[in-house]
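Entry 12.
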Amino acid sequence: WFARHRLGEASADALRRYLEAYEPTMGWGAVCLSHGDLGHRNVIVARSGGRWRINGVIDWETTTTSSPLADIGSLFRYANRHDERYRTAFARGYAEAAGAPLPDGWLAAARLVDATELVRVIDEIEDAPEVVEDCKRLVVRLVDELTRSR
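Predicted 3D structure (tokens):
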């Protein structure tokens, strides 16, 4: 209820509709080890053979099990930082490493999975209004982007 109030009814209702619409894709992939806070600041890369390669992943304190889309959503939380070339290269690299391509609609589904974490923060955090506002902006932006793309 608190998160719904903070987000506003219109955004909360739209988010619920998109979560329901993407539910089949959001369940994609077997449950696996999930970092829980995968982002650029936690991935160590190095150039090797003309390509960037992951050398390590740090900060595993929020590790859990979930869909691979949870970490992908966290990585693409600030989606406007990544252009189409980056997203295409990511999907290609993921398919090469995993041996299977990402599902259709993977980016929206992953960001929606991540939105559930953002809503949890909006609902639970009381002493960091700037964090709550950032999470709220991200959820509202996602809802707006999904609405425009329909």
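Annotation: The longest helix spans residues 129-149. The first strand starts at residue 32 and ends at 34.
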